[in-house]
Amino acid sequence: MINDILSEARSKMKSTVSVFEDKLSGVRSGRASTALVDRLPVEYYGQETELRQLANISTPEPMQIMIRPFDKGAVTDIEKAIQRSDIGVNPNVDGDVIRLNMPPLTMERRQELVKFVNKLAEEARVAIRNIRRNSIDDLRDFEKEGMISEDELKRGQDEVQKLTDDFIKIIDEMSKKKEQEILEI
Length: 185
Fold this sequence. Notes:
This protein is α+β, with helices and mostly antiparallel strands. 57% of the residues lie in helices and 16% in strands.
């Protein structure tokens, strides 16, 4: 029973880290990255579709993203979606190709991005702590119902805490790495 709770907690914490990693990849650093736009919602034939499903996205140069739509008719829809987004870059339409020239980040913008990354990291840590709390509550319920002993409860709580510490450490490392990437000139 304790192992079930631990494996469920581990699984939920892994998915929290995975979501955090996805969010981090969408935060701009010093270089152009396809992750900045690949999940961008585009209104395509009345349907919201992720950009990566509508176009081939590449970075031919360190500060440029090139978007080559599979359907040439989607160029204007993609252009509008980029203009509506908060990435802060104007698309240059060149025939059936859209180029995004990434301006160099100002120090002020870099610091805003670092604050945003720290906010995302804190949200992920809170999610991990909530999983810990729920797992410990489940263990306490099992102890109240006589399904596990007090010693097993204590051991389970210790293991859940160790799991929590490990995953928070992973989040902190990922956050620190992204911060260095953003501040790198």
